[in-house]
Structures are given as C-alpha cells and as structure tokens.
Design brief:
By secondary structure, the protein is of the alpha/beta class. It has helices at residues 2-11, 47-50, 59-71, 82-95, 108-123, 140-144, 179-194, 221-232, 286-289, 304-319, 322-341, 371-384, 409-425, and strands at 26-30, 33-36, 41-44, 100-105, 127-131, 160-164, 202-205, 235-239, 266-269, 280-285, 347-353, 356-361, 386-387, 389-391, 398-401. The protein has 13 helices and 15 strands. Strand 5, helix 6 (140-144) and strand 6 (160-164) form a beta-alpha-beta unit. Helix 4 (82-95) crosses helix 10 (304-319), helix 11 runs parallel beside helix 13 and helix 12 (371-384) packs across helix 13. The radius of gyration is 21 Å and the shape is globular.
Amino acid sequence: MTDLYGRHKAVLPDWLALYYDRPIEITHGEGRHVWDADGNRYLDFFGGILTTMTAHALPEVTKAVSEQAARIIHSSTLYLNRPMVELAERIAALSGIPDARVFFTTSGTEANDTALLLATAHRRSNQILAMRNSYHGRSFSAVSITGNQAWSPTSLSPLQTLYVHGGVRTRGPYAGLSDAQFIRECVADLEDLLGHTRDVAALIAEPVQGVGGFTSPPDGLYAAFREVLDRQGILWISDEVQTGWGRTGEHFWGWQAHAQNGPPDILTFAKGIGNGMSIGGVVARAEVMNCLDANSISTFGGSPVTMAAGLANLNHLLEHDLQGNARRVGGLLIERLRAIGAGVPAVREVRGRGLMIGIELVKPGTDEADPKAAGKVLEAARESGLLIGKGGGHNTSVLRIAPPLSLTVAEAEEGASLLAQALRAV
C-alpha cells in the first residue's frame, strides 16, 4: 500500500485529493460493503461519491456488462445503438419533461457543460444564474458557475455568473426567517438581481446541494423562482447528478419538491444511473435540445456497454422500489443520527432527505465550522469499519452520508452506531 501511495504521488497531480492519512486501495465490493487491499471490510456509506446507487457487484449489472462486452463494446453515436435508444426512452418518460430529448455524456461535469451550451445557444446569452454554495463539476465552464470557493480554482470563465440566495437554509442573511418568509426574501433578491443585468440564459441549481454539504431550501423555492424566470424566458436547469433516481426518498427527482410550476426546461443526470459505469446525460424539451445549428456527436457517451449497465440498473431500482427503501430506511437513519447528534456538542445540524444525509460540525459552543473535526471523524469512522464522505460551504465541515439505496435497516443501525463512536471519540 505504501508503495502504491508513493507511485500515486509521483505520477498524478498534487490536487488529486485522497481521503485518509493512510489512503486505502479498495479492491472489491458486494452489496453495501467493500474490502481494501489489506483485507479490511467496510460498510460503505458513501458509494463512490453517490455513484454505487443500488449495490456493489449487483448481479444484473455485471451480467449486462459482460454480455454486451462480448457482443460489441463501442461504436459511437454515428451508428444506431439499441441500448442507447432504449435507455433514452426510459429516461425521457421518467423525466417529467414534455417532448423530451436525451443526450448521453460520460459524466455529470460533461452533462452540466452540455446543459450550459444548450441554454446559452438557445437564449443567445452567456449570463448564468447559479446558487451560492453550489457545485456543478470540474470542467472550465462548470467550475465557473460553482459557488463554492474550495472547488473553484480559477475566476476565469467563458460565462458571466451571478449568484442567487436560497440554496442554504440555516446560514446566511435569511436563516432566521420562517420557510415562507425565506422564500419571499429569496424571490425578492432574484427579482432585484435581474433588474441589474442584461438577458440571462438560465438558472442552474441542485435541488439538494451535494458537495456543499447536503443543504437544501424549503420545498417550493424553485417553483417560486420559476414564476420570475418565466416572465423573462429564462431557462431552469435542474442539476440532478446527485439527487436523481429516488435518492431523496420522497421524490424520484429532486425538482419534484418544487413542482408547482412544472418541470425544469433542462435536467442533468449522472452518477447513480450507471452504478459505477460512466454515464451522464441531459434531458431537455425538444425546442431547447434541437437549438444547436452545428454538428455534434459523443464518441463515448451512450456506449453500448454503459447503456446496457444503465438499463439493468434502472430496472433493478424500479422493480425493487429502492426509492421507497431510501424513504423508509433513510427516515430511520436520519432520526437515529439526530438522536446521536443531540448528545454531541460539536454537531450543529443533522439534515437531509432519504439516503442523502449531512452532519454539520462546529466548534462546541460556537457557530464556527470545524473542518479539522470533520477530518478526524472521517478517520475514526474508517478505523471502525465505516466509509463516509465530507463536504460543506465555506469550510469542509459536513459529514456526507449516502449509502447504496438497497441499505437494510440492520446496516443503517450498524452504521449509525459506528458513526456515534467516531463522533464521541473526536
């Protein structure tokens, strides 16, 4: 392991972060568990950054990948591709967007990049509204709309980005207001902002901010924003890379918590649909998707192997009602974690929906974020056999918990107990 770590540092970028003081090499997994190169077994509460959505080594997915790879692995979008058409049909129907068209990419970053291309081309404007504390990927354009300094390494941008209030409920100037007042003030802020700028192409927003620490506004905020946006023809892009496919339990898509004024114009997805295979994509109504007047293809997006994996994974998700499982088991887990957090002075808030849960840590007796404590809890959890993530806004002080959606009640209880030990030890 030490040798591999040395080789990693010698040949890969310094900014390519690794978890843990002693980084681990994960060699295999099954269900909700993974094993490292030293034979240690871990309960996985992070799923490769919310990507192993159903289970590790899910038989239906591995079988679909193997069978498709034995036929043909790659052809590109220049040829008809049956698995791509079949998965696009399923996603278009599930999206809620009328007359939907689907374009496949290889990642969430690329999906958001494509959504920005569509929005700016359709509206003939390079001005974008984004949420404070947001994260949308690591490409040049995606970094430029990211409202989180820790994940935005440059201020150079092909876009002009304006940041809107509302993505974080319990911090900022409106934190002390009721939900209804919070929405009214955020809408007033949006209206004021639009009064100081030229035509805007789109608002892009994560229904639940992922890297930002699993924060979210009150239900209905983006529906209220939609009324303002529609008056000026501004598009709404819902970034569902982390919130899609039922992870929040209550809804299949995060935007459905804000559905009073209809679906978004553009929806982006990735991560969980491939269960580890590289799938991303964009859904948009035909008028928007078809607005490009130049040639475009995707060499690797929609590859037969990844599409076969996505179809098998989606079928398993729906047939086993994993959204319902996320709602039931996630509800139990978040209540268990809130009970634990009530006895730990460093825990400011336990928040989330379904199996997308954040625990924000602060210096006891203050409201000051404590990233060092978050790092220590991450280490202590690993030592006890639990893998979790971390994130947050101004400082990385939020523990991120996002297990595969097939998590059992027994595993939720086990994970909560391990996390309680780690929190109390720190």
